[in-house]
Design a protein that fits this description.
It comes from Splendidivirga corallicola. The chain is of the alpha/beta class. The protein has helices at residues 47-54, 76-82, 98-109, 113-122, 138-150, 168-185, 196-202, 220-227, 271-284, 299-307; strands at 7-18, 21-32, 36-40, 62-67, 83-86, 156-160, 188-193, 205-210, 213-218, 231-237, 252-258, 263-268, 289-296. The chain has two domains: 2-225, Rossmann fold, CATH 3.40.50; 230-296, 2-Layer Sandwich (Alpha-Beta Plaits). α3 packs across α4. The protein binds adenosine-5'-triphosphate and magnesium ion. Adenosine-5'-triphosphate (ATP) is lined by residues 18, 21, 23, 41, 43-49, 88.
Amino acid sequence: MNNQKEIIIAVEQVKKYFKEVKAVDGIDLKIHAGEYVALLGPNGAGKTTLVEMIEGIQQPNHGKISIKGKNWKHHQDELHRIIGLSLQETRFIDKLSVLETLNLFAGFYGLSKGKVSEILDLVNLEEKKKTWVVNLSGGQRQRLALGIALLNDPEILLLDEPTTGLDPTARREVWDILMKLKNERNTTMILTTHYMEEASYLCEKIVIMHSGKILAQGTLDELLSKHVKGEAIDFALDRSISKDDLPKTEKVIKIDYDEDNLNGEIIVEDLVSYLPKFLDVVKQNNLNLTSLECRKMTLDDLFISMTGRHLND
Ligand SMILES: Nc1ncnc2c1ncn2[C@@H]1O[C@H](COP(=O)(O)OP(=O)(O)OP(=O)(O)O)[C@@H](O)[C@H]1O
Ligand SMILES: [Mg+2]
């Protein structure tokens, strides 16, 4: 389906090195009209460097970036008109109110007061419009940053960690705003995140980055079915058991068991046939389960299988 859609952002062989640090190390990426794309990866993966090159804030050492066929060198004004962005950390002027802050940015774009009140409503800050920015909560600041990014009705939204540090309710509020934009305006978006739930919920395309490179990209289902097999049983016992006593069938993909900490993880192809055998062993050995969770594989499992590390270590 994507093949018929316009390519909005094309990143070709882009590299950015800071002396010996290869922050972005040869990235190719195509983003289509209306697509929501997550750059997911741990600290230092190169997410900010990549989005800032797309935003025209940093220049690549190598490679090419085009946005709707245009580039930052020759089409700066046009690109500013169609892009809305928020940086990983936004600095506001503390003693301006929310309204004054939005008016200031609206002034840069030559926008009307009506636009500012539309944005206040969209990001749900109407009640706080007279509050000094310094007195906003973390979630309210993030929504203000998003509001500023949305002032010029951008076709393309580039958001660097829009929900980091927010509690689940505040995160959900940002997600709702972003989903509304997707459904009502067909906005194209790239966001960076550490949260696999955020990437999965918001974005049809997930790009997993590590050490300046793309490890894998695709829809959640594509990534999981291609790169990680099976289902996991995570358990903890009240007493130790030998790893050799855990049932081994041809359907077992991997058994990890820590005899000191009494917990383990078994990855199996067929959970329904394996679980009763596992529970039999627990019973026969007079053990108690202190915890038991059966779960589908996640993007974190994928990341571990490729790098040996958790996404958020
Ligand atoms: N201006 C700079 N000078 C030197 N090194 C830099 C610079 N900017 C980034 N780096 C390095 O490049 C690598 C990628 O950094 P980047 O900020 O792009 O990562 P990130 O994925 O956004 O990480 P985080 O999740 O922590 O925000 C890191 O090793 C970082 O230290
Ligand atoms: Mg970053």
